Amino acid sequence: MNAISEQGLKAPTVKLLINGQMVESQTTEWREVINPATQEVLARVPFATQQEIDAAVASAKAAFKTWKKTPIGARARVFLKLQQLIRENMGELAAMLTAEQGKTLPDAEGDVFRGLEVVEHAASIGNLQLGELANNVANGVDTYTLMQPLGVCAGITPFNFPAMIPLWMFPMAIATGNTFVLKPSEQDPMVTMRLCELALEAGVPAGVLNVIHGGEAAVNAICDHPDIKAISFVGSTKVGTHVYNRASLAGKRVQCMMGAKNHAIVMPDANKEQTLNAIAGAAFGAAGQRCMALTTVILVGESQQWIGDLVAKAKTLKISAGTEQGADVGPLISCAARSRVESLIASGVAEGAKLELDGRNPSVVGYEKGNFVAPTIFSAVKPGMAIYDQEIFGPVLCLVAADSLDQAIGFINDNPNGNGTAIFTQSGAAAHKFQEDIDVGQVGINVPIPVPVPLFSFSGSRASKLGDLGPYGKQVVLFYTQTKTITSRWFDDASTGTLNTTISLK
């Protein structure tokens, strides 16, 4: 939590959402929301009090009594309306996101759009929340299942996708009949709050969606609250592991999407220009601040000669504020994030990696106070170096050499993380071997960031994920529902008035 500046005291306050009302917090603890390109204070965000958190959960618990009985078609129509409102307000949402998070306007629109796809998927809940029926499993006996909502669920979201990731969570939770308490990132909550306003406009009833703000204390309160049944988390490995352990011990369902170290293999037969463009976008887009960023490229055989071409491609990217026309790489979220990335770059030099392109201290005219780091490329990177072992979360790309596809696959499988990976090749045999042998949950073939559309589930694996079921898609319907199995028997002689309660399964 930061001290509030004089500029911050004059800034508007971010509200809480409790029982359908935007509420001014009574807290004495605040944090400033700062434009990372200009250091302008955009707003003050409150760290909600325990009483306010309890009120949000109580509101959700009360609303669940009626929302769970709302017809599935009525729930679906709310999200049909919400997707329309998001489309109508796309420009406003993207501009707000860019101001507080820093990513370029095209990236911001993509952030909103990928969340919008999940809203559209939530509108098809009638086809997703279907049980099963086995007729006449024994003499006159049927067995069938119901997929019923859990109750109050909660979401904890990161700063890097303040539109997409909240939209991964609350639409699917609410569509399946649950109520929700959301804690967005305290660094950039404004676009999240605007999306919640649109959700209320779309018809989400009072209490069904609630929002609190805060830091560690708010996270712990969500983990500990006895009325919260399930938690979805996206963020760092450190915090995600804490959330998973603490909330699981409290008896909650938990899914945590955490840190990553994503690799791509470049085979010598890959289409060179397409591959270079894909790598540049995946490594440096969103200033590298995404858990699916491409951070490590393994150059196999003759593709090792492409380093100069990759450096030249990176130099063509425009570094500027996200609002500037043609900007490719915006600022990092905070001064602290910039300092951390710069220190990791320095460690790479000290530990013996070859700095092919140094992005520290770029000149960005008109935005001299911005948190900018330009594209940075290292070659000769090895495990044990901090730039490889740690998730940098900045526009830094590590290059590794390999003699064969088998050696490259082994290198990736030795890394503990399993969020995403890719191969660039024109060989079907190489692609097939890669998809079969690689131990990573999401695989791209000539696709650098293989995040699936919402018809499927996000399926990161190993150290990148805790919990069995992923966000959105079919898996999250299972996460947000409890399966109830019913075995029934109705007698042909019911008209006689005789009640026979004995069921034989012979």
Automatic annotation (TrEMBL):
Pfam families: Aldedh. The keyword NAD applies. It comes from the Bacteria. Keywords: NAD, Oxidoreductase. GO terms for biological process: L-valine catabolic process; thymine catabolic process. Transmembrane segments: none annotated. SUPFAM superfamilies: ALDH-like. One of its GO terms (molecular function) is methylmalonate-semialdehyde dehydrogenase (acylating, NAD) activity. The keyword Transmembrane helix does not apply. PROSITE patterns: ALDEHYDE_DEHYDR_CYS (PS00070). CDD domains: ALDH_F6_MMSDH (cd07085). Residues 23-486 form the Aldehyde dehydrogenase domain. Its EC number is 1.2.1.27. Belongs to the aldehyde dehydrogenase family. This is methylmalonate-semialdehyde dehydrogenase (CoA acylating). The lineage of its organism: Bacteria, Pseudomonadati, Pseudomonadota, Betaproteobacteria, Burkholderiales.
